[in-house]
Design goal:
The chain is α/β, with parallel strands linked by helices and 375 residues long. The protein folds into 2 domains: 248 residues, tm_1862 like domain (pyruvate-formate lyase- activating enzyme); 101 residues, no CATH class. Helices cover 26% and strands 19% of the residues. α3 links the parallel β7 and β8. It is globular. The relative contact order is 0.10. The structure holds iron/sulfur cluster (SF4). The site of iron/sulfur cluster has 10 residues, from α1.
Length: 375
């Protein structure tokens, strides 16, 4: 550490930084993003984050829980766990990510936790099985793939191959058929010939994933990849990105359609947009309905009734559908995995006050598929 001779600035090289304090955004009572980890030790060949953010570090579970209890006291219903390499939580404290989520699951007051992203090699059986059995962790995984070509994965210095990735997503779907799985992919990494790109396209069609975040490779100073041969022309990269975004829309549409006619718990947000409100199911389906202040920051069982033909739903004429707690009685929901956390009274939290007025009528429609997920 260096102290400047004049003035009070104290600084240290980012690579030496070991301290971490969990932080969160405090302006939304519905959903809060809690950063539980920073930095990364992986040094993928295309990525500057380890240089910019330093080594992997996090607070202890005990200190993280203190932040979560403060958030819970503020009335927040959902916490999204974020980090640069979230699954690497616990380094230096003899703790790990599974222990963290086990501890979080016991915090009273937070109704949902969502894992923003987790590397495939860190999304091990223990994490998957715990989420499957959890009362609070959402069945939603975002797992970076980056390429469906093992040769390109090696060039990227990723810590898994396509076989491991396929096995991880299959285990998630085996345990939680209703789970939503999102994927990060990069197009146009140096050496990604047409054939290697097609391996990615075919791989993504062969595994049970539900949407993609597609990034076009761009050269970054001080990375290994920038010095590699076989750069791909930018127009080719962009064309591949376009192709994968089309695939993403198809995957997401299929996922939405699969859930039509089911009932899931939706956490509604406060914002009113042209008379409508928005909410997310546990498995990341976006649901909108006419604004009703009674539903703000509440988890409400909702029957998902329709989406339009081209996936651009807002502005379409939604089908009015009666949604009542009678439809979500214990009997009708008992076989529905979407409401596995709903008690016999139909209350997601077990609080009888949350049982909805049976006369409520809502208009439900699905979101535009072109909208990007929130992270
Ligand atoms: S891509 Fe992710 S895992 Fe790889 S070095 Fe960057 S932050 Fe770390």
């Amino acid at each position: 550490m260096t102290t400047q001779a004049k003035g009070k600035a104290i600084y240290s090289p980012i690579k030496d930084l070991k301290h971490f304090v969990p932080s969160y955004n405090a302006n939304d009572r519905t959903r809060t993003f809690l950063k539980v980890q920073d930095g990364c030790d992986y040094f993928c060949s295309f990525c500057t984050i380890p240089l910019a953010r330093g080594r992997s570090r996090s607070a202890t579970i005990a200190d993280t829980l203190k932040q979560v209890e403060i958030i819970a006291a503020a009335g927040v219903k959902e916490i999204v766990l974020t980090g640069v390499n979230t699954g690497d939580f616990g380094k230096g404290h003899n703790e790990d990510f599974l222990q963290l989520i086990e501890a979080l699951d016991r915090v009273e007051g937070i109704e949902r936790f969502r894992i923003s992203s987790i590397e495939p090699n860190l999304c091990h059986d223990g994490v998957i099985d715990f989420v499957a059995a959890s009362r609070r962790f959402a069945p939603h995984f975002h797992i970076p793939l980056q390429s469906g070509s093992d040769m390109i994965l090696q060039r990227m210095r990723r810590r898994y191959d396509t076989a491991l990735y396929a096995e991880r997503v299959q285990r998630i779907k085996d345990r939680m058929p209703h789970a939503c799985i999102g994927v990060d992919v990069i197009t146009g990494t140096p050496g990604e010939t047409d054939e290697e790109f097609m391996k990615t396209h075919e791989f993504l069609r062969s595994i049970p994933v539900d949407y993609l975040h597609v990034f076009t490779y761009s050269e970054r100073a001080n990375t290994t990849a920038v010095r590699m041969d076989d750069a791909i022309p930018m127009e080719v990269r962009r064309e591949r990105t376009k192709q994968l975004r089309i695939l993403s829309n198809k995957l997401q549409r299929a996922f939405y359609q699969k859930h039509l006619g089911t009932t899931r718990n939706v956490l509604f947000e406060a914002e009113e947009n042209e008379g409508h409100m928005l909410g997310f199911t546990d498995n990341y389906l976006r649901v909108t309905m006419p604004y009703d202040p009674a539903f703000v920051n509440r988890i409400v069982p909702v029957e998902l009734t329709r989406m339009d033909g081209d996936g651009h739903i807002i502005g379409a004429h939604p089908t009015v559908h009666n949604v009542t707690t009678a439809n979500t009685s214990a009997g009708s929901l008992a076989e529905e995995p979407a409401v596995r956390r709903t008690n016999a009274a139909g209350s997601p939290s077990g609080d009888p006050a949350e049982v909805r007025d049976p006369s409520w009528t809502g208009t439900i429609y699905a979101p535009p598929l072109s909208d990007r997920p929130i992270f």
